[in-house]
Structure formats: C-alpha cells, structure tokens
Design brief:
The protein is α+β, with helices and mostly antiparallel strands. It contains three helices and six strands, in the order H-H-E-E-E-E-E-E-H.
C-alpha cells in the first residue's frame, strides 16, 4: 500500500520542496549604507581666468570716460573736416586691490556722538521747543549774574575812589616827617 501512495505523494513533495527552497533563495539584503554626496573643491589651476565676481577683489580696472566732440576743422590741416564723434579718455589706470573689502579701523577711543546723520533721528518739535526754553532760562540767569557783577564792580570802583580820596586828604594834612 505504501508503493501505491508514493506516486501520488511525489508531485506534492516536489511542489513543497520547490516552494520551501524558493523562500531561501529570496533573502532580503541588508540596506546599503547611505551614499554621502561628494563635495567638489575648486582647486586653483595656473593660467585660468578669474570670474567677474572675483576680479574686483584682486585688481581694479581702468576707468574710461567718453566725451562727445562736435564737427570741427582740423587745426593742422584746414582742408580737413572731422565729423562728430566720441573721444574716449582713460581717467584712472588699472591698479592692484591692496585692501580687498577689509574695513580700516582707527582706534580713536569711545564713540561720543553718532557720526552718520542718517542714523541719528531728527528731533521732534516738542524736543526743539524744550531745548529752546532751557536755553532761554540759561540766558536769563547769565544776564542776571552779569548785571550783579557789573553792579559789584561799580561799587568796588566807587569804594576805591573814596579810599584814594581819603588817603590823599590824609597825606595833605599830615606831611611826612623828614629826617635831620
């Protein structure tokens, strides 16, 4: 009876073996480590040209100005007429940039006042009126002190004149004694 069952079980065993072996064939691979992006570093190569953004950091260019000239007769040859055209003049020559965007700081001590008037807010009308009233009170006090001092100086002059007059009268009535 076992011989008869074997041919019937053979296809079932083959299918089971194929299914079980297939599970072991498709194993999950471990995740690959993340790929880090490559950083490209610009390596200076001799003889390459600078881009326009960096050229001013190294060298200033020429400064050119165009001047329009009207028609005129050539001063060397009166038979020649020059038509209107432009004359280009080099105002400043190219030069090396010796301080590329480096701010120059001079140690002058603590800042007492704002040097840039654009950053200093303009005073309001009430502030100006308050300052003017303070100046008026100060001027009145100075004028009063001045008048007091002028009166005191005048009093001292009168007292000095009386003292001199009294001293002069005293010397006239008592002449100094002369030695024998």
């Amino acid at each position: 009876m076992k011989k008869r069952q074997l041919p019937k079980l053979l296809p079932a065993l083959a299918i089971a073996a194929a299914l079980l072996s297939g599970c072991s064939m498709f194993r999950k691979k471990p995740p690959a480590p993340p790929v880090q992006p490559q950083v490209t570093v610009a390596v200076p190569v001799s003889g390459t040209e600078l881009d326009l953004a960096n050229i001013e950091k190294v060298r200033f260019g020429d400064t050119l100005k165009a001047y329009p000239v009207n028609r005129y007769v050539d001063p060397r040859d009166p038979n020649m007429l020059h038509e209107a055209h432009l004359v280009y003049r080099k105002e400043t020559a190219a030069s090396w940039n010796l301080s590329p965007h480096a701010p120059t700081t001079v140690p002058l001590g603590p800042a007492i006042a704002v040097s840039d008037p654009a950053e200093k807010p303009s005073p309001s009308n009430a502030d100006i009126e308050q300052r003017m009233n303070a100046q008026t009170r100060l001027m009145a006090a100075l004028t009063e002190q001045n008048e007091t001092l002028v009166a005191e100086v005048a009093r001292l002059h009168r007292e000095l004149a009386r003292t001199r007059e009294a001293l002069g009268n005293a010397t006239k009535s008592n002449p100094p004694a002369t030695a024998p």
